[in-house]
Write a structure and sequence with these properties.
Radius of gyration of chain A: 28 Å
Strand content of chain A: 35-45%
Oligomer: heterodimer
Largest sheet of chain A: 12 strands, mixed
Distance between the termini of chain B: 87 Å
Number of helices of chain A: 7
Strand order of the largest sheet of chain B: 1-2-3-4-7-6
Structural class of chain A: alpha+beta
Largest interface: A-B, 78 and 58 residues
Number of strands of chain A: 17
Chain lengths: 367, 273
């Protein structure tokens, strides 16, 4: 039976190949041989085509009509088995997995069927941050949080942090925006007996056009949108055309949120920004409030890109806590648990210290 | 004939003498009245209680004067109470300090004067540098007991004057007993403490919320400024139209107490009532 997955092995020594962050080549960590990503691409093209055909053939076996009642239709569709080309073990993963590693032999494994045709990403931002960078950044992130439970860092498996390419839609957008603002000029002057406030009210009309480039919106249901928006921005000057070689050694999912579903998020951000840009042009006023607005999208294109993210999910008191690091810029985001005792004690100590200081200030002003 | 002439001359001289003698006592009387009046005015301006506003009865004036004399002897200071009907648009602080220097500055341990202008309803307490070593501030005299201001405000001028004297007595007595002037800032103030505790609790809650908020930096992005191509921004319409003007007038609040200050090393201050 043909393999349904492709292992990127060194043609020289047969060891697994890994894309090293920060390099433009794929390197064999065992014999040190370096390969251009283009050469690797060509080298494994045939193998990928074969693996894709093998997967198609195997998918027929997952026809659940004769599978009895143990698996529902949805469950069966979500589960997919692949054969590791290195050790022959069966790798089970979900319907979106593009790249993974064999849990038995640790071999980096591609699932070519997942990035064929229209599913193939246009662009990729290669990983720049190594695992060591990610671990150090995460440890640094824990520092300075006074409410962090003391036993959290000891048991949070920071070494288990995983690199993953997350599917993103990148929206280009040109808009024509109109906005109407109510602006005020406030002048205060005093006489011997009165304080007079004169408020001049203006209607400010603003219209303009502007363009946005590559607004990111993640196309993965697994990824929390708030986390994905928090690790922004990305340096797009390092975007390169997609090659599967960049995925070797990393986890990768294909998109499972359509471009149409993601567009609303991008559009909302464009709309807010366009209005803010127009508002910035309302100058020399003391206050400015939006009265009415209309943002008309003139057009735009969408690109499919893979973005590097380091991910760690750990549990504390049975609650999962996820941390992510932008694999390109190193920006870490996450939500930490807090110790309720510390959350009461520290503010109470601050209040106790501040009370005598405030007492003397208050007494000074009341005297 | 010669006898007749001598007789007429004698009568003339006699009549002149009588006239002169009669006239002289009148001139003396006139001069002494003027001097007496002048002395009286001078004495009035010098006196412990000056009341051109006529707010005190003679009995009250006498009682205040006696009380002042007792305190002056006890503490070797000069004390003045001046209620003026009108100070001719002069600054009350200037008037008070001028009067303190002129009329009440000769006390062994210093002097103090309460000056009240009844036209503009302003009051001032001025004390000189010597007394300032025993009484730290005019405001200690005015606000040692709330009744001074309350009574002044309620037109109980005799009560206010008594409260002023009582404060002077207490403050100087405190100095005699402790060797240091009374310092209000050293006194425990339960109202200030209650306010301080309230503010500290609010700050504690704010600090707690800030600390908890700092545990997460995950948030949705509401804008896309990082992806805006700045060079593409083009304003096609920019029109500001004036609509109307709103005018609000707020009457200045009249503060019950004014600012204080120091002049010549002393302390003086006051306010309206």
């Amino acid at each position: 039976m043909a393999d349904t997955s492709v292992s990127y092995k060194c043609p020289n020594c047969g060891a697994p190949l890994t894309f090293i962050p920060g390099k433009t080549t794929v390197t064999c960590e065992y014999c040190g041989t370096e390969f251009e990503t283009g050469a690797i691409e060509e080298m494994f093209q045939a193998k990928r085509e074969l693996a894709a055909k093998a997967e198609e053939a195997q998918q027929n076996k997952w026809d659940t009509e004769n599978a009895g009642d143990e698996w529902s239709q949805d469950e069966a569709e979500a589960l997919h088995a692949f054969t590791c080309s290195s050790c022959g073990a069966e790798i089970v993963c979900d319907e979106n997995t593009m790249a993974t590693e064999c849990v038995y032999c640790g071999n980096p494994t591609m699932l070519p069927k997942r990035f064929d045709g229209t599913l193939k990403p246009d662009l990729v931002i290669p990983f720049k941050k190594t695992k060591e960078d990610a671990v150090n950044a995460l440890k640094e992130f824990y520092k300075g949080h006074y409410l962090l439970p003391s036993n959290f860092t000891a048991n949070n498996r920071v070494e288990a942090i995983q690199p993953m390419y997350v599917p993103f839609w990148l929206f280009d957008s040109s808009v024509e925006a109109h906005a109407e603002f109510k602006a005020e000029k406030i002048h205060i002057h005093e006489t011997s007996s009165e304080i007079i406030t004169e408020t001049q009210v203006f209607n400010c009309q603003r219209s303009g056009t502007m363009s946005f480039e590559k607004i990111p919106a993640d196309g993965s249901k697994k990824m929390d949108d708030a986390y994905m928006e928090s690790i922004e921005p990305f340096n797009y000057s390092e975007l390169v055309p997609f090659q599967t070689a960049y995925l070797t050694g990393y986890l990768a999912d294909k998109y499972d949120v359509s471009v149409e579903d993601c567009a609303a998020r991008a559009d909302k951000r464009v709309q807010n920004t366009a209005i803010e840009v127009l508002k910035d042009s309302v100058e020399d006023f003391d206050t400015c409030t939006l009265e009415d607005s209309a943002v008309i999208k003139e057009g735009g294109k969408v690109l499919y890109a893979m973005v590097p993210v380091w991910i760690l999910t750990t549990r504390y008191n049975d609650v999962p806590y996820t941390f992510m690091m932008n694999g390109q810029t190193g920006k870490v985001v996450g939500s930490l648990p807090y110790n309720e005792t510390k959350a009461i004690l520290y503010p109470a100590i601050c209040s106790l210290i501040l009370t005598p200081i405030i007492y003397f200030i208050v007494k000074f002003f009341l005297a | 004939m010669i006898k007749k002439i001598f007789f007429l001359m004698a009568i003339f001289i006699l009549s002149c003498s009588v006239t002169f003698a009669a006239a002289k006592p009148n001139a003396n009387n006139e001069n002494s009245a003027q001097v007496e009046q002048k002395n009286s005015e001078q004495q009035n301006l010098n006196s412990s209680v000056v009341d051109t506003a006529e707010v005190f009865s003679s009995y009250q004036k006498k009682a205040l004067t006696e009380k002042i004399q007792q305190l002056e002897q006890k503490y070797k200071i000069r004390i003045g109470i001046n209620f003026f009907k009108d100070i001719d648009d002069e600054d009350i602080d200037t008037v008070a300090n001028e009067r303190l220097r002129k009329y009440y500055g000769d006390g062994q341990n210093g002097g103090i004067v309460l000056t009240v202008d009844m036209v503009y309803r302003k009051w001032n307490i001025a004390l000189d540098a010597k007394l300032n070593q025993r009484i730290l501030s005019y405001s200690d005299v005015a606000y040692l007991h709330d009744e001074f201001y309350d009574k002044l405000h309620n037109d109980d001028y005799y009560g206010a004057a008594n409260a002023y004297l009582a404060s002077v007595d207490e403050l100087l007595n405190y100095y005699e007993q402790n060797g240091t002037p009374y310092d209000r800032s050293q006194e425990f103030d339960p109202i200030s403490l209650a306010v301080a505790v309230g503010i500290a609790i609010v700050l504690g809650v704010v600090i707690r919320e800030w600390l908890i908020g700092s545990m997460s930096n995950v948030k949705f992005a509401s804008e896309a400024r990082d992806y805006l191509k700045r060079e593409t921004v083009r304003l096609t319409e920019q029109r500001d139209t004036y609509l109307y003007t709103n005018v609000t007038r707020r009457t200045k609040s009249k503060s019950s107490s004014g600012g204080g200050g120091r002049s010549g090393g002393g302390s003086s201050g006051g306010g309206g009532f």
